Amino acid sequence: MSQARIIDGKAFAQNLRDRLALQVADLRSTGAKGGQDLVPGLAVVLVGENPASQVYVRSKGQATVAAGMRSFEHKLPDTTDQATLVALVEKLNRDPAVNGILVQLPLPAQIDPAVVIATIDPAKDVDGFHVENAGRLALGLPGMVPCTPLGCMMLLRDVLGDDLRGKRALVLGRSTIVGRPMASLLLAADCTVTIAHSRTQDLPEECRRADILVAAVGRPEMVRGDWIKPGATVIDVGINRVPHADPAAAAEGRTRLVGDVHFAEAMTVAGAITPVPGGVGPMTIACLLLNTLTATCRQNGVPLPGSVPEADTAAP
Ligand SMILES: Nc1nc(=O)c2c([nH]1)NC[C@@H]1CN(c3ccc(C(=O)N[C@@H](CCC(=O)O)C(=O)O)cc3)C=[N+]21
Questions:
Q1: Where are the transmembrane segments (predicted)?
Q2: Among candidates 228, 212, 108, 197, which has minimal Cα distance to 159?
Q3: pLDDT surpassing 60 at residue 33
Q4: pLDDT single digits (tens) 194-205
Q5: 30 C-alpha to ligand 1 centroid (Å)
Q6: Confidence of residue 230 (pLDDT cuts 50, 70, 90)
Q7: What's the pLDDT tens digit per position in 89-130?
Q8: CB under 6 Å to ligand 1: residues?
Q9: Beta-carbon neighbour count of residue 77 at 10 Å?
């Protein structure tokens, strides 16, 4: 039986981070402005003590420093009110050392994420969540592109080459942070794009038509082997924690990570597939650094370094 190629997102992300570190070093020496070195700065704001969020924020901070950028971490208590968070974001908007701002989601219930995101200066919105950036992407205009879809496009181009024209792409999920921007990027690459969701009729049949299948619904192992077109490229965005496969281990409360795709089944049908973990997740963080470098260059009127991919289009 044939076996899919496993797309090594971890290695791809590390390679991208290494290239970004070289560009950051270059920018330091050549991009000096007004006698000041140009060092990209990323501010990450965490409200509350969600353990998963704490882990992500720590690894983002480490990756930022490893790339030679400045990391500013702001940790606020769970009880923080919206006005306080908005005031912090406004301060970061004005801070010239801060080129990128990320407010970790989810936020506590007393804070409306839409209000906070709307406060972020679109030029510093390295998540690409601001309405202005979402609108730009939808219209095919340059802007900041959300990190996860951007990383997915890079992996797709690595597998399939730069020319994705005419390929049938199915995006499973319509979230504002993955599904919708992913569909926009695929459309910009001239794919024939379908967005499927919880109300889609005959979902398995829709999936089976796709040359490119991007699963981003947050349902563990929902996509089965017989939903996949033989030879298709499968990008699994899901990160779901489920009880450990071994009942004894599960009884001790141990868990494992699975994607939205049944990996073992998909392996026998797909042409290539991203694993979970080690697929899309590491690309999200690498693309956050890429967006921070892109934002820094644009804010300072410095051209993007040649070997850094043009984030807007996710071209190689
Ligand atoms: N404003 C905001 N921006 C985000 O980009 C954002 C956010 N909020 N909130 C939470 C989600 C989640 N997210 C991940 C980043 C990296 C991995 C990652 O590197 N995962 C590894 C390890 C997974 C593990 O072991 O837990 C992997 O898939 O191999 C996963 C998930 C960013 N998010």
A1: none
A2: 212
A3: no
A4: 999 999 999 999
A5: 33
A6: very high
A7: 999 999 999 999 999 999 999 999 999 999 999 999 999 999
A8: 56, 102-105, 127, 147, 239, 257, 276-278, 281-282, 284-285
A9: 10
Shortest-distance atom of ligand 1 to CA 105? 8
Range of lowest pLDDT (19-23, 109-113, 296-300, 304-308): 304-308
What is the residue with the minimal CA distance to atom 9 of ligand 1? 105
Which one of 121, 125, 127, 312 is the catalytic residue? 127
Give the Å distance between the CA of 116 and the centre of ligand 1: 20
60 is catalytic: yes
- Tell me, what's the pLDDT at 316? 35
Confirm or reject CATH 3.40.50.720 for domain 147-281, answering yes or no. yes
**How buried is 27 (Cβ within 10 angstroms: 0-12 exposed, 13-18 middle, 19+ buried)?**
buried
Pairing of strands 168-172, 100-103: unpaired
Q: How does the average pLDDT of the chain come out, rounded? A: 94
Q: Give me the CATH topology for the region 35-123.
A: Rossmann fold (3.40.50)
Report the DSSP beta bridge partners of residue 5: 272
On whether ipTM exceeds 0.90, the answer is: yes
Locate the domains of the chain by residue range: 35-123, 147-281
pTM: 0.96
**278 annotated as a binding-site residue:** no
Longest pairwise C-alpha distance within the chain: 63
Q: Does 271 appear as a known binding residue?
A: no
d(CA 13, CA 286): 6
Is 147-281 in the same CATH topology as 35-123?
yes
Residue of minimum CA distance from atom 18 in ligand 1: 281
d(CA 126, CA 295): 7
